[in-house]
Specification:
There is one protein chain. The protein folds into 2 domains: 289 residues, Aldolase class I (TIM Barrel); 144 residues, putative tagatose 6-phosphate kinase domain like (GI Alpha 1, domain 2-like). The protein has 15 helices and 10 strands. The strands form 2 sheets. Strands 1-2-3-4-5-6-9-10 form an 8-stranded parallel β-barrel, surrounded by 8 helices. Strands 7-8 form a two-stranded antiparallel sheet. Strand 4, helix 5 and strand 5 form a beta-alpha-beta unit. The two termini are 38 Å apart.
């Protein structure tokens, strides 16, 4: 079977507007919402995990590449969504989690990781070797030749493993690959300026040439049949409180240079919090793979906070409430490792960031058992009472419209999932031809 991402590239070569969102998330409610929406439109969905989230040592989600695949498939089975419509991807797959180790050891771990991804059936793999490793000189930027050579080594490992996969399953879909050395930090920057430097056309071609040379030297010239994208910095980023919005005029020269290379597209990272119009401009300009991560759990958290305020009004006994907001804050204070390096300022400013930062570090706590139980208690509490329509309008105005128009049930779980769907709709608008979404007028 042909990899569906190759079809996207072919359509773009024919002048057809298309692209694909890359949903980088390991939250069960978020993934369920994404798949629910895809089911309505019979869409193919790309869901990715980073090497920090998922690896042979189980990452911070506690999952291996195989377990993440099964995790997504179990959610799909729950809502009767076909596995064949899901592309599982690996983002930043390389030595990142082991960057403190000497290069030889870090790359050995990276090789295990990408082998596991191929064996698990991942159909898209971002080979990221852009970071300094333990014994690399740190007094200068990473050399493009070193980055490309390490990327070529990982590509060869993937291809060798795929041949083994084919022996067991001749119908297995060949993975496609993304390369690139100008890779934004996973999860957003710690602080974003009003603008970020756009990759220059010269830099793009310089990096591309380095990869071509290293792949050819290793006898891998046919790799370009399977390499479909390169990561560049088109000028989008977000920090705790700032968003750098896409400016197609600043990215014009870079995107014009891409026209020389019709067999690849750009992959844009950190597109979170861009407006639907800006996302669509990115896809029109050649940034056809648009990745989103923290904005998904930000939408989830926002909805859970709204329901918590409704709970305060409708459940008079404080002891009977889920108290989700307070419990989340307690957990973040008790185990600050996932946010303390990223939030700065006064205690008051840090408390605001723990709740409302665009980098959404609270996502690392949502899978905690006690937090998960609080979410379920919140759903039970509000399922047992009648939420006044006017109160819903106050706290969840977008969901109010759908409930009013009988397109969404007044069910707390569905209300939360629809908050995620509203964001997914922005990305659908960006990648589909002649697609209309109500959210474009309010986001």
């Amino acid at each position: 079977m042909k990899n569906p991402l190759l079809d996207m590239v072919e359509k773009r070569k024919a002048g057809i507007h298309c692209g694909i969102p890359s949903f980088c998330c390991a939250n069960k409610l978020v993934i369920e919402a994404i798949l629910d929406q895809a089911k309505r439109f019979d869409d193919t969905v790309l869901i990715e995990a980073t090497s920090n989230q998922v690896n042979q040592n189980r990452g911070y989600t506690g999952m291996t590449p195989f377990e993440f695949r099964d995790f997504v498939y179990e959610i799909a089975d729950k809502i009767h969504f076909s596995h064949e419509k899901i592309i599982i991807g690996g983002d930043h797959m390389g030595p990142l989690p082991w960057a403190d180790l000497p290069a030889a050891e870090a790359m050995e771990q990276a090789e295990i990781l990408v082998r596991d991804c191929v064996r698990a059936g991942y159909q898209k793999i971002h080979l990221d070797t852009s970071m300094h490793l333990g014994d690399d000189p740190t007094d200068r930027p990473m050399d493009d030749a070193v980055i490309a050579e390490r990327g070529a080594v990982l590509y060869r490992i993937c291809e060798e493993e795929f041949q083994n996969v084919l022996k067991a399953d001749p119908s297995a879909i060949h993975p496609v690959y993304v390369i690139g050395s100008e890779v934004p930090v996973p999860g957003g920057a710690q602080g974003a300026e009003d603008t970020v430097e756009v990759t220059t056309p010269e830099r793009f071609e310089q990096v591309l040439l380095a990869y071509h040379q290293k792949f050819a030297r290793l006898g891998l010239s046919d790799a370009w049949v399977h390499i479909i994208a390169m990561v560049v910095q088109p000028g989008v980023e977000f920090g705790n409180r700032e968003i750098c919005h896409y400016d197609r005029f600043r990215a014009h020269d870079l995107c014009q240079k891409l026209r020389k290379y019709p067999n690849i597209v750009f992959e844009g990272h950190s597109t979170d919090y861009q407006s639907p119009a800006k996302l669509r401009e990115m896809v029109e300009d050649g940034i056809a793979i648009i990745k989103v991560g923290p904005a998904l759990t930000f939408a989830l958290r926002e909805a859970l906070f709204a329901l918590s305020r409704i709970e305060e009004e409708l459940i008079p006994n404080p002891g009977a409430r889920a108290n989700f907001v307070e419990l989340l804050e307690q957990h973040m204070l008790r185990a600050p490792k996932s946010w303390e390096r990223y939030y700065c300022g006064s205690d008051f400013e840090k408390s605001l960031d723990r709740k409302y930062s665009f980098s959404d570090r609270c996502r690392y706590y949502l899978a905690d058992e006690e937090i998960s139980e609080a979410v379920e208690k919140l759903f039970r509490n509000l399922s047992g009472v009648a939420i006044p329509l006017g109160m819903l309008h106050q706290y969840m105005p977008l969901q109010y419209i759908k409930v009013r128009d009988r397109k969404l049930p007044m069910d707390p779980r569905e209300l939360v999932k629809d908050s995620v769907v509203s964001l997914v709709e922005d990305y659908n608008y960006a990648v589909k031809y002649n697609y209309v979404t109500g959210g474009i007028f309010v986001r």
